[in-house]
Design goal:
Blueprint lengths: L5 H6 L6 E5 L2 E4 L2 H8 L4 E3 L15 H11 L6 H4 L3 H13 L4 E3 H18 L4 H14 L4 H17 L4 H8 L4 H14 L3 H15 L1 H13 L4 H13 L6 E5 L11 E4 L1 H4 L43 H16 E7 L2 E2 L7 E2 L2 E6 L3
Parallel strand pairs: 2-6
Antiparallel strand pairs: 1-2, 3-5, 4-10, 5-6, 7-10, 8-9
Helix pairs in contact: 5-6, 5-15, 6-11, 7-8, 8-10, 9-10, 11-13, 11-15, 12-13, 12-15, 13-15
């Protein structure tokens, strides 16, 4: 049985830009409405009620997470990230040097991004923590609650054992207890494991499909630290293949004509392919971003928008640009097996295989 692509199925329901999917369920793809709704403080993330336990943030978990999120802003700035980029580049070179002739693009992207995240948050890569984070994410996709609880315990305990480095030090200095520091690090590691890696893997895929663009990235990487075209490749990969392809918000009050209590579905995947906002929207054209393009509000939001934008929205593209440039400085990526989009919440290149050719630069 062939299942339809969920993204295409949602596109068929989009209508004129604001479509009612059910009694209290709406799909919004019109850019201006998207920007106003996601930017509203009354559009909140729908969260399942969490029972007391190891991963609980406490009786008012949203308030606790909001306080931690606000406190860790200094670590999630380009000013903090930029001095770490040489170490990220060196780790990328070491990892890529061990690649065989054919790689799984998504698996290797996860490895590269995980090392960078751990260095950024805890001061050094950790193969143990990376493996445990991967195991917890796999368990969360399953149906066995006991397996998930064991995976959560293993990740939590390992983070407590590694609870030193920039982020734990910053939060501890502001008075957060060890439990909340551990949960904060865990949240950042889980959210930063597959999502940015999917963006990097899609960039690998598109550059393998477009050798001229790949050559341009390589030449730029050889030329120094300024890499505007490489950054544009990341931005275009996030446009064409946003890893989080669907968002949901619940309205605490009426916003933009939609009633309080409604659940609103947004899709970066659909908005990013809107021909009224992006010329030739199905084409991979990194150069569209070189002219300091400012897309229509609500037409480009790979990290969401408004008060609940991803905390790493500024730093993730910088790190991904560094990783991509270092990979292509010494390697050429050639198509071996094209991917199929994953069918879950994460829009990742499932089954992407790339042939790797060392350029001896």
């Amino acid at each position: 049985m062939i299942r339809s692509d969920p993204r295409e199925a949602l596109a068929a329901k989009a209508g004129s830009g604001v479509a009612r999917l059910g009694p209290d369920l709406w799909l919004v793809t019109e850019p201006i409405a998207t920007g106003r709704l996601l930017g509203s403080p009354d559009a909140v993330t729908a969260r399942a009620r969490q029972p007391p336990g190891l991963t609980s943030w406490g009786p008012d978990g949203t308030a606790a997470w909001t306080a931690v999120r606000r406190a860790m802003r200094p670590v999630l700035t380009t000013a903090h990230t930029t001095p770490l980029l040489p170490a990220v580049a060196e780790q990328t070179r070491r990892t890529a040097a061990r690649w065989p002739g054919v790689i799984d693009g998504m698996r290797e992207a996860v490895r590269l991004v995980s090392d960078a995240n751990l260095h950024h948050l805890l001061g050094a890569p950790s193969a143990t923590l990376s493996t445990l984070v991967e195991a917890e994410l796999a368990a969360a996709d399953g149906v066995l609650p006991g397996r998930l609880r064991r995976a959560q315990r293993a990740t939590y305990d390992a983070i407590r054992a590694h609870n030193h480095g920039p982020l734990p030090a910053l939060l501890a200095a502001q008075g957060f207890d060890e439990h909340h520091v551990t949960l904060a690090v865990r949240s950042m590691l889980l959210s930063g494991h597959h999502v940015p890696a999917a963006a990097l893997a899609w960039a690998f895929h598109e550059l393998a499909r477009h050798p001229d663009a790949q050559d341009r990235v390589r030449a730029e990487a050889d030329g120094g630290s300024e890499r505007p075209f490489c950054a544009s490749v990341i931005r275009e990969a996030l446009r064409l293949h946003p890893p989080v392809w669907q968002l949901r918000r619940q309205l605490r009050a009426s916003v933009h004509g939609l009633p309080a209590g409604a659940t609103v579905v947004f899709s970066p995947y659909l908005n990013h392919r809107n021909p009224a906002a992006h010329a030739d929207p199905l084409d991979f054209r990194p150069e569209r971003w070189l002219r300091h393009a400012r897309p229509v509000p609500g037409s480009y939001f790979p990290f969401a928008l408004g008060p609940r934008i991803c905390p790493a929205s500024r730093t993730a593209p910088v790190v991904l640009t560094t990783i991509l440039g270092e990979v292509l400085r010494t390697h050429r990526l050639v198509r071996h097996r094209d991917p199929k989009p994953a069918r879950g919440v994460l829009h990742a290149p499932r089954g992407l295989a790339l042939r790797v050719v060392r350029t001896h630069r």
